[in-house]
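Listing S7. Sequence submitted for prediction.
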Amino acid sequence: MLQFIREKAQSWIAIAIVGMLIIGLSTVVWNSYFGPDPDQPVAKVNGDKITSKEFQRAYQQQRERLQKMIGNADISRFIPDEKEFKSNVLKRLENEELILQEARAAGYRISDALLAQQIRSLQAFQTDVKFDQALYQQWLARNYMSAGQFEELLRRDLLLQQYRRAVLTTSWSSKQENQSLIQLRQQMRDVGYLTIPATNYLDKVSVSDDEAKKFYDENSARYATPEMVSIKYLELSVNNLAKLVDIDEGKLHELYEERKSEFGVPEERRTRHILIEVAGDASKEQVEAARKKAESIYKQIEDGASFEALAKKYSDDIGSSKHGGDLGYLARSDMMDPVFAKAAFALTKGQVSKPVKSAYGFHIIKLVDVKKGKTKSFDEVRPTLVKDYRRKQAEDIFLDQNETLANLTFENPDTLEVAAQELGLTVQKTPLFSRDDGPGIAANADVRSAAFSDEVLVQGLNSQVLELGNDRSIVLRMDDHQESSIRPFDEVKKQIIDELRHKHAQAMTEEAGKKILKGLSDNSDLQAIAKKDKYEWHHPKPIMRNNRQIDHKVVEQVFRMAHPEKDKILFDGLAMDNGDYTLIALYNVTNVDVGSIDKGVLDDMNKKREQYHGAIELMGAMTDMRDSAEIKEYPGNM
């Protein structure tokens, strides 16, 4: 296909195909500006769609979480299969959608009051431990969200938590089960052991050249060097471009004026309320009863009763009632019920509203205090404006240069120099790397795949533009190539002899250990054997399963052994990973008395077992939901 394009490079056909190719190469960047419909489905779960926008948000969040965990390391090393990574993100979204559907069907809901309380409690939106409306608005702006979008996402997350908690907290664990587990954990075993070192037999082993050569001939593939390549490449990144952007103070001031509302602190009102809740499916009689109750409470307030005391006694808003109905300072926003907002912002300081009906019931609202709004100055927000300005300019430059990079490296398939000169980039190089691993940029699986592609490796052409994220792309070509080859026998002879000597010594060590084990009886003295044959003897204090001072393989073997009969000793042996052989003597097993188990330890075990059972039940419920659900995926939209 590419050869055909090159032969027809001056034709209108080539121009059309190149145009389409460039669009394909720039898909990720282009999509971030004009790309596919963000509302198109990547999956449908029982008819409810998971949109491309939702998937991209979850995908980026997952990558960001992973990047924070690994620090400055190349994230591609931890995502060897991008397709599988995306599939796992989609499966998580599908599972969450299934839980939401189940929760809504079961009648779970998140009230506006609880949602507002959660937002006010988030540290990201607080200054001096108080909710800061300006910080909230700035965060929304930085993340390109409206308040309504964020609140819907938070409501969704709270609903997921509510359902999961309901499953996790209804699990239980029996007292007998917990006692048995504690007994096993705290069980003590009196054990002694000796280790026969494989090094004792190394001097007794000799390997001839003929034996080594025979092994080499039969296993020559083990001594092959992998096929290796090194590459030259050009890299474009938004971060690098942002450093080169000059600041236009006039543009910054224009940006400030455009975004002034983001930097404003709106008027905030501290309110208290008393909520008489009314269910969504309440009858007329129930609504009327709630209205009369609210009016009766309002009459008490008019007669001088304490608003705070009445809120504590009558309000159905659990979150605020214990605080006398205090909702703190609130600005008018999407998260407020419009009826509540209209009433609250019509009051004067100290005034109490008559009962007003919202979607959740009847509210009696008291205005406690008012904070006038203000707007942060240009100088206060300049650092934010500079960062955003540079980023936006760099993204625009990146989009243009990415297209130029695709054009020039395609039109000049035998060199990167033309594109480098035009774009002011430096041609970079890598050391040699294999198909399976590489340093630096070659740690990325897509880079290695492109380097070993027929187009680059065989035809010697420039690669297509590789998108390494939404803000980074490269084009590469071959620099050096080394074929896979079998290392000559003389080069690996010493390595083979060492391997065979160790293998023979290991076999002799195991044979010696098993011979001793076979000769042991119920009352044999393993310590005496250790002293006689000059093996190091170990007899620690009785150990538990969590012992970390002894090799974990020895500990595991000790706790796999049966209980010895009274006044008798059990023996066992095992080959170690390093070729040594360990002989074990088990003298006694002591179980903790059930009655002596501390209540705190028992309670802790009960909590952990309930969490374990809850997790198992949640996984089982999730499996049942998936088995009975109709799920259709659209991988092409991811």
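Caption to Listing S7: primary sequence and predicted structure tokens for the chain studied. DSSP finds 25 helices and 21 strands in the chain. The two ends are 27 Å apart (CA to CA).
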